[in-house]
Amino acid sequence: xxxxxxxxxxxxxxxxxxxxxxxxKIYLIGGDLGPFNPGLPVDVPVWxxxxxxxxxxxxxxxxxxxxxxxxxxxxDLERKEDTFTPVxxxxxxxxxxxxxxxxxxxxxxxxxxxxxxKDIWDTRIAKLRLSADSFISQLEAHAKLDNLTLxxxxxxxxxxxxxxxxxxKLRSNQQPGSSKGQFTDF
Amino acid sequence: xPCERKPMRYGHSEGHTEVCFDDSGKYIVTCGNxxxxxxxxGLDDDxxxxxxxxxxxxxxxxxxxxxxTASSNNTVQIHTFxxxxxxxxxxxxxxxxxxxxxxxxxxxxxxxxxxxxxxxVEVSDSSQQKTLRGHEAxxxxxxxxxxxxxxxxxxxxxxxxxxxxxxxxxxxxxPLLQKTNDISNAKSLCRLxxxxxxxxxxxxxxxxxxxLYERGSWDHVSTLSDDLLTQLINVVVWSPCGxxxxxxxxxxxxxxxxxxxxxxxxxxxxxKGFTVCDLAWHPSGSQIAYxxxxxxLGLLDGLRTSTSNTTNTATKQAAGTxxxxxxxxxxxxxxxxxxxxxxxxxxxxxxxxxxxxxDEDDDDFLMPATGRVRxxxxxxxxxxxxxxxxxxxxxxxxGDDDDTGSGIVPAAAPLVPLxxxxxxxxxxxxQKAFQPGSTPAHLTHRFMIWNSVGIVRDYNDDQDxxxxxxxxxxxxxxxxHLTNTLGHTVADLSQEAVLLACPGTDELASKLQCLHFSSxxxxxxxxxxxxQGEDVRALCLGQGWAAVATSALMIRIxxxxxxxxxxxxxxxxxxxxxxxxxxxxIVYHRAPGFDGEQALGVQLLQFGRRKRQLxxxxxxxxxxxxxxxWFGFTAEGTPSYVDSEGVVRMLNRSVxxxxxxxxxxxxxxxxxxxxxxxxxxxxxxxxxxxxxxKGSRYPxxxxxxxxxxxxxxxxxxxxxxxxxxxEEQFCRSVLFSNHFSFLSSSGYEIDEDAQSxxxxxxxxxxxxxxxxxxxxxxxxxxxxLAELMTQNxxxxxxxxxxxxxxxxxxxxxxxIALEKANLIQEEMPEEEEEQDYSSVRRPSGSGQSxxxxxxxxxxxxxEEEEEQxxxxxxxxxxxxxxxxxxxETKKTSVSPPPMSQRTYLLSS
Lengths: 186, 908
Prior knowledge:
The structure holds 2 protein chains of 2 kinds.
Chain A lengths: L2 H8 L3 E6 L6 E3 L2 E3 L8 E4 H9 L3 E4 L6 H13 L11 H12 L6 H28 L12 H25 L1 H10 L1
Helix pairs in contact in A: 2-4, 3-5, 4-5, 5-6
Chain B lengths: L3 E7 L7 E4 L6 E4 L4 E5 L8 E4 L4 E7 L2 E6 L3 E6 L5 E7 L4 E6 L5 E6 L4 E5 L6 E4 L6 E6 L5 E6 L3 E6 L4 E7 L17 E2 L6 E6 L2 E6 L5 E5 L8 E6 L5 E6 L3 E6 L4 E7 L6 E6 L6 E5 L3 E6 L10 H20 L6 H7 L22 H32 L10 H4 L32 E6 L3 E7 L4 E7 L8 E4 L6 E4 L4 E5 L8 E5 L9 E5 L6 E6 L3 E6 L3 E6 L4 E6 L4 E7 L2 E9 L7 E8 L5 E8 L8 E6 L5 E5 L3 E6 L5 E7 L10 E8 L4 E7 L14 E3 L11 H15 L1 H8 L6 H24 L3 H10 L2 H13 L3 H33 L7 H45 L7 H9 L1
Antiparallel strand pairs in B: 1-28, 2-3, 3-4, 4-5, 6-7, 7-8, 8-9, 10-11, 11-12, 12-13, 14-15, 15-16, 16-17, 18-19, 19-20, 20-21, 22-23, 23-24, 24-25, 26-27, 27-28, 29-30, 30-31, 31-32, 33-34, 34-35, 35-36, 37-38, 38-39, 39-40, 41-42, 42-43, 43-44, 45-46, 46-47, 47-48, 49-50, 50-51
Helix pairs in contact in B: 1-3, 5-7, 6-11, 7-8, 7-9, 7-11, 7-12, 8-10, 9-10
């Protein structure tokens, strides 16, 4: 799974838009959308919101958590706690990126929000690396992934799995006798 | 001693608030629960300077440009005045200080505290402190002897103690007050006051009287009281001359006595009856500032107790010029729309405040004001005539006081004939004309209108004055940006045009500008000058026409292309005006309202082919003490409005044009100061479109507010029960489908799917209610419900009744069914004739017959629909019947089938 796939999944999240056109309900496999009334907020998936936005057919209402005060609070909490704190949305990073790239004119203080979300992301990734390090150095067998988002897991998955494989190979070569003995048992 | 009570204004957040004047009398200084000290340049200062002194400020004193405050960090601190720089801490207590005061020269400060102590500190050297111990409860107030020998303090232990400052000893302790354990429980703050200048008397508020104690002997020499003053007195202050004493009470009364004659010379009442918690007398003696426990600041102006050595003629002159000044204040009304913004701000809504200050009166509504002023002139004249007569008498009486004393006699003379203050109903300030969906005109960035078509915004800062027009649906027209050179203040927007208007100035007439963007020719704009002296107050756009209400009580109708079509007069000042299609609705002032109520009238006119008036200036119902905050038509064309209490009402055309409350937006607000700013109403689907505003009545332009949707709910009884709920749904459904018959009667096409849907819903609800009543054994109610049903549903009800073994009920129902069937039979033949008639839409025939036709055709449609349904039902019913009968024979039970099955049947 790569980042673009995770982003694709994130595009299924709903976001409020204020359309500037009028359209009856549209019936899609994924569910009904609309009706669209000009000036009246309606919930649509992010992919549609971005598409309409690019065609200048709507204004995007940023999600409630995309607010400087709330994000600052979250960042401070994230820095204070040793464990991962709950995130506002399971796709917070992807949504921030998508919405800020395509609809930054509809989001007040877009730059500050970008920095704040990046701060939170950096803090969390640092924590993740730290825990991966202790996971390996203490030869743990399993770890809890509470409050981790798909994107975060995804960033470390390939690296962690490969390195674990390598380590395993290295370790099994170091003690050829014992490991071979184990394998022969089965 | 007539005086003018200025309207209260918001000073601090709720809680104990204190006030004083600076030495020159130029500033009013207040402190309050928000920890700020505010410096007001007069009561009208909209942007007072403030100094933050702590989290809370309990008390303040000001002298020699030193501001002493008692704040929540248990200190008494000095700030410089008026700069507000911190100048050190005078003293500390173990808990907060409750009252601080200066001595007459300003060299010492006394502070009483909740830790039972009183401290006297030298301002120049805070290390020189004297602590007075002896109180057994928190100290309520302290006051210095003007000659600096003594200090008096009152405490929650019930005593008033006079101390000798030098020896730090109690001279006398008087058990005068009620005992309490804390300031917060004390009924009265018991603010003592020592007579200035002569220092002869110490005033102690004891319950509803003021007791005066003589310096030296400490005997109780006299008591000041007033029959109309029944509540506990909180605070007393001496006038700077020492001849008058003012008291503020827990119930909001303000009373002034002449101490020599012991007569009450002035009575005023706090406009809302809140507790007066501090008073301050202007150094000139002409004004008293007061504050209440809600943090508001008020002012009594025009008290004539001057201590200056004016000669008699000077006093007379002053008396002579006074009424003139009053009139000036009355007519030089500041035209800056203050009333409007007060109307929309929370603290000073016009309706919650009876008309008091004459300078507040709008020049449109002089009636109540002039009445009162005339009254006042009479009193003033009285005094003038008395002046000369009483002069000699005064000299005789007070000649031994001092030579200059005669100067103040005229003021004190007319004491005896003073009438008690007028306490009857007060006229309400009539609300100003407004454009529904606009925010107050004084804002630099504001909405000129927000309606279902789009938004018009006005930016009016120093560099730029511009108007932005934006459409919700960009298919209507692209956004427009205009420079507002004319200074337009009101706007309306429709699918065809933008209408703007500006008030007239001395040179320029009031102008009306129309941007007719849907015009097919190249000239998309026209402009009209109103006659000189006539100002646009309200305007609106209908379909193909525009209406303007002016200050000359005139309604002018223009075509959308700019042809003047109609002109007629309005019985009162316009409040607002809205249009939809061919309907024009005007709200105006019928008469002055009283006690916070607005007396509004409403006219609904229909233009188009047959012009007529549908509502003939009937009174508009509003909630108690509220004013109109939004008026508009629903998207389907039913007039509806919102008052300042958040109640939404809608015209009920089926009950003789009455107004039905359909929603209370305040019920969904989280906090008291939150409001919903309504922008539109839709009947199908039922939507109340509004913008939630946190802590205000209207939204800011940035960040761009988002529209929310509220549901409607009729305030029926017992809506928590199943019965009440269904009744509410049914009534609401009926009310919100009224527009179908109205629209079809006025020749519009209607959404027949939606209509049949709503009728189906209603019948379903009726059947549910029928089943419920059946279960509750309310057969009479069942019959009542059956009368509302259509024939087909009645047959269903009969079946239900017979199934549940209610034969008597089934019998009655079948009679009803028969009646209904007969009714349909009678209508049948007529329909045939009308068939070809109705194919010609809108012939020259009258609207009435068309209405009937519309109704019939809709009914016919509904019948067809139901017949189809019925067929379906029959089939299912048939199957079920067999099953039911089978089970019934088996169990021989007499109970009717379960409800859920029934209702399922109906909805299937």
